[in-house]
Design brief:
mainly alpha; globular
């Protein structure tokens, strides 16, 4: 939480270190007055992309077209984590 008690979204790596470029991008959204939910949504999607890249050996800053196509296939083929806390649904992990 910031000094003024506002909430800031950040992206962290597996060791809970801040992902500098992702956090800078989110700060840029904040700086131009984007909605809180926009920042929240982008933070989750950026984190998903970075996790996928880490687990699949993709350089997040310069993926090839085949690598992007593979991620798109993964997004379509793998079920998303449920928003509810129901335990009977399959969960997508970035490593799968």
């Amino acid at each position: 939480m910031a000094a003024d008690e506002s909430v800031w979204w950040v992206v962290v790596d597996e060791d809970f270190g801040l992902h500098v470029e992702a956090c800078a991008y989110l700060a840029g959204l904040r700086g131009v007055g984007r909605a809180f939910n926009t920042e929240k949504t982008y933070a989750g999607r950026i984190a998903l992309y970075l996790s996928y890249c880490t687990r699949h050996g993709v350089d997040w800053s310069s993926p090839s077209l085949p690598q992007l196509m593979a991620m798109m296939r993964w997004l379509v083929d793998e079920p998303m984590r449920p928003r509810s806390r129901r335990r009977d649904q399959p969960v997508r992990a970035a490593g799968n």
